[in-house]
Every structure is written in C-alpha cells, then in structure tokens.
C-alpha cells in the first residue's frame, strides 16, 4: 500500500508450523530475508518457550521487539499432544520469558483450542483445566489470552477417528456458558480473554499493529491495515509469515488444522516428552 511505503515490517513465525522443530532454518531465513533494520516486530507462535529462550535466542535478541503467542492447552504430553511439554513445565517458564521480552504485554497466552472428545464411553476435555491455566499465567503477569473452539474439519475428524476419538458438538448455549466462565476467570485476575476467529464473537487482533506500535521501544509505527488472506472473523493487521505448510509439525496434535506428523496410540515417549494415559478418562 502506498501509505505504508518505507515502514518496517512485522514478521510472523509462524501460523503455518511450530517453529521449535525448524528453529535453525527459520532463523536463517529470518536474518537473511528480513534483517533487523527492516523489521518492526517478530511475532513468535509456539508451544515451546525454549524456542525463544534458547534455540532462536541469539537471532531474536538482535531485533527491536518480540511478541510471543504461547499456546498452553492443558493437553501437553497426552495422546492429543504427544510431543508437547506438560502445562506445568511451560507455565513455570513464564517469568523467564516475560523478562526476556521486557514487558508482559508482549506475551499472549493461548489456551487454544477448547476441546471436547469422546473415546468409548469416556470424555476427554481441557475445558476444566483452562481456568487454572489462566489464573496461573495471570499471576505471572500475563494480561491477554486468546482461545477458540476446535473446528471439526473433515481431515481433523478422520485423524481423530484413526486414534479412536470422536469430537462432540457443543451447542451455542454450551459455548456461551463456557466462554462466560473463562472470561470471568480472566477478568477476576485483571486480564482479558479474546476470541480467535469464533463466528458470532467479537473480532479480535492476534497480530495487532496498534498494540505493537504502542509497545515498540523506540515508538516506531507499523502497518495497521487488515491482513489479507485471513478468515473473515480475523482482525489481524498486516504481517509477513515465514513458514510453510510443507514443514510438517512433529508435535503430533490430533486436532491440528494443518497436516501434522501423527503418532500411533501406544507409541510411548517421543522426544523426551511422555505420552500420558488419559487418567480417569481412559
């Protein structure tokens, strides 16, 4: 756009894959294509705080501003997220992560998506776990949260079925009751819960050029026009996404909307992260 000529760019790593598993490649692409003088903010989307704190730290610290979307569903280490760290491990690193970012407003925590599944006669859901995740993160300084309800796309349905799971549909009334409870929990902790692309809910901006401008250490402005190619209920502002759907994610999350590498049931420990049973719901 003509009015944005010469403005520094916001680079996103990445809506398309988990950067933890491709840290070296993405770091090389980032520093070569978008060196620090060209970049306003680097936005990291991850379930692994160590991608910021260790594996990409050397490159990321060269940039003026980082903003992190950290996903903690409460399902890490279960068959639904076999190679994702357990939530208590991730939450324990929040103080260190916030310190590195320099401001808690540069971190948004995502207990996303909200999942309700059935296997046999047993139910597996993270909805009861999310309030405590919100409370613990808020007490560490996090003020912004985003979530959504799992969308049962045909490929997701097939993947879940291959592992013995069936997604349960929630009525609009049930969704609103769940949302009200989670939003109230966040508000009680002085935080805000945002809907990420939920039809019928207020539109929010996970990449928010207005916020990134306000938080920038030198007060530099970035683009605030709506990003093209996103869903209708997405309010995100312009960014450049590094990452490719061909970079398949080994996290193995069964509800993923992309094409993850999926592990069979009973595969045991993966990458040092145990595949847990469903406990009382197995």
TrEMBL record:
Which superkingdom? Bacteria
* A Pfam family it matches: DUF1848
Q: InterPro entries, from UniProt?
A: DUF1848
Question: What is the protein named?
Answer: DNA repair photolyase
The scientific name of the source species is Thermanaeromonas toyohensis ToBE
